[in-house]
Amino acid sequence: MQRLVLDKICDDYENVDQTILQDVARGAAECGLTIGRSDVVKALEELIALGFAKAYTLSRREPFSTELDGMPPLDVVEENFRTYFYATKKGIDLQVSDDTWWPFEAT
Questions:
Q1: Which of 25, 84, 87, 102 is spaced 20 to 30 Å from 62 by Cα?
Q2: Residue 1 pLDDT
């Protein structure tokens, strides 16, 4: 689960309710798994605790991104999509270091 979420946030800032949940749930379903929002939030919390990801708020004005300290509370669906996640260098290095775990065909 963590690796599916990490894969989603390695190339761009992503929001749980805008893209991460939908994409990870679709991928998990291909493996016969059912993933809910709380599963994605927990995976992000674990990735942040391990130093593989960070949380940010994004804005159209400077500063365009502001790093948040730790995992923000995401108990409810965000309507304005302000909280985003991005992999750290450590997370990207892990993701590209070994793809034997990847459950999907290369496209």
A1: 87
A2: 85
